[in-house]
Amino acid sequence: MSNAIIIALSRRSFALSLVALGLGVSSSVQAATCPPQYQNGWVAPQFANATAVLNAALVSVDASLSTQLLFQSERLNSAVAVLAKQKAVSASQLADVNRTTAQQVATGLGVLAQTERVKAARFDFGGEFGQGFSPCEVYATRSVIASRDADMVNELNARVQSEVLAAPGRYAPRAEAATQLYRDNQASCTADMVKAGLCRVIGATPGASMSVATLFDIADEGDPVYSAKNAFINNIVGLPDPPVDTLKGPAQESYMLAKARKDAVVSPAVASLKALQLEHSGVQGGETGKGLPLAQMFREEVGRYAGGTQANESWSRVMAAQNERGAMVEVLKIKALDLAIQTRQLRQMERMEASLAALVAAEAQYNGVVGAARVQADSEQAAKDAARRGIQ
Questions:
Q1: Same domain, yes or no: 175 and 72
Q2: What contacts 24+ positions apart, CB below 8 Å, involve 24-32?
Q3: CA–CA separation, 288 vs 152, rounded Å?
Q4: Which residues span the domain enclosing 307?
Q5: Please, which pLDDT band fits residue 38 given cuts at 50, 70 and 90?
Q6: Tens digits of per-residue pLDDT, 228-238?
Q7: How many of the other CB atoms lie within 10 Å of CB of 16?
Q8: Does a structural domain hold residue 284?
Q9: Angle between helices 135-163 and 294-306 (to 10 degrees)
């Protein structure tokens, strides 16, 4: 386009130069003539030629400009189409990104909500904050205590019959029982008993079978201390009643009734002594097998809350991190232990009541026998007085 314009302008300048030259020549030739004559014959073609050149240049410029405009318009349309496509792709990608982002945000919020629920559940129901001190350990220990306590209640009657020489309802030769009791007491011989000639050597547990404190010593079944507990109870209960083989008829019946009455009177004391022995002894239970003595297990449970033990220090550290629910759960555990102790105290009171009833019965029986003897003695004395007066 620039070259055509330059050519057109050059041709126009050339034409103008010719016109000027013609005018100059004519003026010089016709200088003599006046007025000068206008030379239209040869100027007009020059103007026509210059006009044609200019028109051609303009047409060329117009054609070139139209071609350039068409080319640039096509490029612009193509660019606009590409831009529209890019915008569409970008919008699609942005929509996908927004959708993915929304899904990720929703997933993240779900994870956060689940984490918060897990944290809340762990805080309220976990063993660290919401269940008190070592819930699994305490539950296992309390279950063992409950099972052991029930097992010892069932074991009490069996132990009375198998370990007490003069158990209620038992008939045995007194000589054999005395020999067995003498052997059982040998392990508790003291130095004074050796000097007195009652024993040959000092036993492994001197004086244990003659002291009630032995019942409160912790010992396992089979230990000398446990044997000393049996010997102590047998020393108190005494020897069994002999068999009734030699008695017949009403004498045998009277003997058996007297035996039953005596056993009923002494059985509360025998059961109480045996219960103390089982409570402080690790015996073989019928349901729970061999385990720690109940007194020791209760002592450890109480020591956790009472203080002065390593377990209490651990309990205090754990309770410092407990929330309100954990503290309430621990209070319930302490209350449950208190109820278990009160249950055992109730059993002790029931045994004490039975022992007191037995004492009252024994005293009533004694008073009845003494009263009958006194009445009989008074009757005999009255008869003697009457006979004496009759003689006089």
A1: no
A2: none
A3: 9
A4: 135-387
A5: low
A6: 999 999 999 99
A7: 13
A8: yes
A9: 150
